[in-house]
């Protein structure tokens, strides 16, 4: 045994793209609100975080209409 940690292989998304795991630290109140939002939208917490990030990136690139 080498005693080293094994690297986790990236998982595959539905579209076949690799996903890389990482640690995300959130304040407890933000985490609880994201959990509630995910449950309301019938998504996993991870899926909800990804959705929110993708929406923010889309808006940043100008892909959303102003409300």
Give a written overview of the molecule.
This protein is mainly alpha-helical. The chain has a domain at 24-67: Orthogonal Bundle (Arc Repressor Mutant), CATH 1.10.1220. It has helices spanning 28-40, 45-60; strands at 11-12, 18-19. The protein has a two-stranded antiparallel sheet. A hairpin with a 5-residue loop joins strand 1 (11-12) and strand 2 (18-19). Helix 1 (28-40) packs across helix 2. The longest helix is centred in the last third of the chain and has 16 residues, at 45-60. The protein starts with 10 loop residues before the first strand and ends in a 7-residue tail after the last helix.
Rounded Rg: 16 Å
Largest sheet: 2 strands, antiparallel
Strand content: 5-15%
Q: SSE order in H/E notation?
A: EEHH
CATH topology of the domain at 24-67: Arc Repressor Mutant
Report the principal-axis shape.
extended
> In angstroms, what separates the terminal alpha carbons?
59 Å
Mean pLDDT: 85
Structural class: mainly alpha
Low-confidence stretches: none
Helix content: 40-55%
Keywords:
67 residues, single chain, two-stranded antiparallel sheet, 2 helices, Arc Repressor Mutant, 6% strand, 2 strands, mainly alpha
């Amino acid at each position: 045994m080498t005693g080293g940690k094994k690297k986790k292989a990236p998982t595959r998304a539905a579209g076949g793209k690799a996903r890389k795991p990482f640690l995300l630290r959130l304040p407890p109140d933000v985490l609880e609100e994201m959990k509630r939002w995910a449950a309301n939208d019938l998504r996993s917490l991870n899926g909800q975080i990804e959705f929110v990030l993708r929406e923010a990136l889309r808006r940043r690139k100008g892909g959303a209409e102003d409300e």
